[in-house]
Each structure stands twice: as C-alpha cells, then as structure tokens.
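Predict the 3D structure for this chain.
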Amino acid sequence: MTRSDGFWAAKLLMSFSDADIRAIVKAGQYSDSKDAETIAKALSERRDMIVRYWLTRSNPLDGFTISGGKLFFKDLAVESGFADKAGTVYSVEVASDDPKEKPTSLKVTEPSVSLVPRWIRENGEARLLIRVERAASKKLSPAVTVRWNAAGIQGIRHED
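Done. Predicted structure below.
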C-alpha cells in the first residue's frame, strides 16, 4: 500500500462520524446495549488511529480550488485536529513549462497561494509542488503537485 492509498483510505474513514458509527453498530441489533457501545467506541478509536497515522505520513492537503487569483486548499490533518495550525508552513515550488523561467519557491502559513499570471505562458501551464512542514517534526511531507493553467486546475497528484 502506498502513501497515496493510505491518504485515500484516511479520507474515506474521516467521512464516518461517531454518530454514523453508532448507527451502523445499532443496525447490528446487539442484545446487550453495552456491547454495542463498546464496539462503537472501539471502531471510532480505530478510525482515529488510522486517520492520524496516514495524515501524518502523507501530504494531507485536499479540496483544491481556485478563486480570485488564489489557489485554496484544505489541510485535513489540521481540520481533523491531528496537527496544529500554529507552526505549520506550506512550502511551494512553482515550475513553469517555460524552460527560460526559473522555478519560484515560497513559504506560506495559510492554506492558500496567490497565483501569479506570469507563471503560465499563453496556452501553457504551471506546476505547484506543495509540501507541509510541521513545527513539531521540522520534516517536509511528500509533495502534492497541482497542475494549473488559465482554465483552472488540470490535475492533482499526491506523491508516494
């Protein structure tokens, strides 16, 4: 299983709330309500362990959109409470398809990047490689590559 697979699984598991898990367990019609509570609690804890594991070993960025000349994204590890927003830095490297254009590197502390029109030539595209650094670890996550052109986001790839 790759980090991308783990990230995908974590996103899927995150979609199940504690209430969802209790409802699923309730459908099992356990004869003892204490058994149902124990199973629901264990499943919720297991969900959290799996999500925490994969969101801290992959790049937890998702939900990419462009609006008002900015690329916005969600940091699922912060949103789910598994990482602190304080001390989180997003390292961005912008590579143009223009061989004369030198890559641009920048660091941002909010989950958004201002898009500079010169990063793409007419009918061209740019690639933004975004990595996450947490104050607690000082280690860069694998990259997420976002391909962007004048029409918008053309592709998103999580590095394994």
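The mean pLDDT is 93.
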